[in-house]
Specification:
mainly beta; four-stranded antiparallel beta sheet; single chain; Neuraminidase
């Protein structure tokens, strides 16, 4: 099944590729795993593609947030829940090269993190809208969060069965957040926490209405540990995963084929003095087990996985080749994981992989060639990688992609200046070129 993606979850790779995306000096694994937070106000956001009409999800409790005008377009702006806190260190630290400072952070920022396609005319995208300016009242469903919440990923098996995952902060502690769409409204569903301190879900995949997985990490007594939760049709429960590293173990992506074949990917790190290495685990119906995976370069991390069949699974990420960061593409053939030829791009990161069997593979993320970050979307046609050109203005990162029939969608962020703010960006592939698609909060609808 297609594994929906949540790049806000990219604590796994965001620090690893800091020199590429955030314009920071290259670091080893010592920085990976550090959680960066910045206070802010905003709304958890969902965007819904419906070619017939614009509608808004039913409202819940009243919340003080900034009112944003939503244009009448085919993308539907839906307030899902709560106030938000921004996670990525890139939002705070990236900016002009050459040591110039951006000054105070922009008061408004928007990001699209995860997507799922039910049909060509029914696609959900989740993300966040952050606002630090004076607020006005807007109705929005909210959770029990005292500081903020965010959604990282979304998955579905039908128009009335959609799950979104993330986390919320309550009295300074981060707790898991899971919401469900039943075709009429979003509702928060009880989700367990493995720690009283820090818990985050960053990816989700649905095998059936009674079989779904969400993964992330939590802060144990002394280290970060992999977190996996399972939906059995009645409730979400924690299912223990292996934690092979003495330091950090963290999942960033999950994708399942059936009830006895589910994959989770991320990174592991033995200690602060050692570099991150790839981490892949497999669920066999009873246990999560570590599966050996290649880990090239000085540092390596996997950010997304797409399981097509028992003998055809793809995972992508980034590795440090010594003088540049390069996309990492790995493949499971039913017996072992091997490194596959990756897109020819330097100073680049692969954030997401989308596959349309048998040989139609898309890898996307960002590249930096000294003038800021740009969307990077590569296509494998069965024989070679082809660099496609996004529509103008794609100065940011692709966070998620979905394929449904002949439609291929890319979602993420773009910036109008080197210092931001970040705005939502959606583009669609028509078979020959990428085209900009208007959406709420993309900075062009004012």
């Amino acid at each position: 099944m297609t594994a929906p993606v949540g790049v806000r979850a990219m604590a796994t790779a965001a620090r690893l590729i800091a020199a590429v995306v955030c314009k920071q000096p290259a670091q080893t694994g010592a920085e990976i795993g550090l959680r960066q937070r910045r206070p802010g106000q905003g709304e958890q956001r969902g965007v819904h593609w419906d070619p017939k009409r614009l509608r808004r999800s039913p409202n819940g409790n009243r919340l003080r947030t900034k009112r944003v005008s939503v244009p009448v377009s085919r993308w539907l702006g839906l307030r899902l829940a709560a106030m938000l806190i921004l996670l990525s260190g890139c939002f705070q630290s990236s900016g002009p090269s050459g040591g110039a400072s951006c000054g105070p952070a922009p008061t408004t920022q928007v990001d699209l993190n995860g997507a799922t396609a039910i049909s060509a005319s029914d696609i959900w995208v989740v993300g966040l809208y952050q606002d630090q300016s004076p607020a006005t009242a807007v109705d929005a469903p909210v959770g029990p969060w005292t500081f903020g919440a965010h959604l990282n990923a979304v998955a579905s098996v039908g128009p009335r069965d959609v799950w979104a995952v993330g986390s919320g902060q309550n009295n300074g502690e981060e707790q898991t957040l899971i919401e469900h769409w039943d075709g009429g409204s979003w509702a928060i569903v009880a989700s367990p926490n493995s720690s009283a301190r820090t818990n985050e879900l960053v990816a989700v995949d649905m095998i059936s209405a009674k079989d779904a997985w969400a993964v992330g990490d939590y802060l144990g007594p002394v280290r970060d540990l992999a977190l996996t939760e399972h939906w059995d049709g009645v409730s979400w429960t924690v299912v223990g995963a292996e934690n092979p590293a003495a330091g950090i173990n963290r999942f960033a992506g999950v994708s399942g084929i059936n009830a006895t074949d589910v994959w989770a990917v991320g990174f592991r790190r033995e200690s602060d003095s050692m570099s991150p290495r790839t981490l892949i685990e497999r669920w066999d119906g009873l246990h999560w087990t570590v599966v050996p995976s290649p880990s090239p370069g000085r540092t390596a991390s996997l950010t997304n996985v797409h399981a097509v069949s028992v003998g055809d699974v793809w995972a992508v990420g980034t590795y440090d080749a010594g003088n540049t960061f390069l996309p990492l593409v790995e493949h499971w053939n039913g017996k072992s994981w091997t490194i596959k030829p990756s897109p020819e791009a330097s100073n680049a990161t692969a954030q997401v992989v989308a596959v349309r069997p048998p040989k139609d593979i898309w890898v996307a993320g960002a590249s930096s060639q000294g003038h800021g970050d740009d969307w990077s979307i590569q296509h494998w046609d069965g024989a070679r990688w082809i660099q496609t050109t996004p529509a103008p203005g794609a100065t940011g990162v692709v966070n998620t992609m979905v394929i449904n029939g002949d439609s291929i969608w890319a979602m993420g962020t773009y910036r109008t200046t080197a210092c931001g703010p970040d705005w939502a960006l959606i583009q669609r592939w028509d078979g020959k070129a990428w085209n900009y698609v208007p959406s709420p909060h993309d900075g062009r609808q004012a």
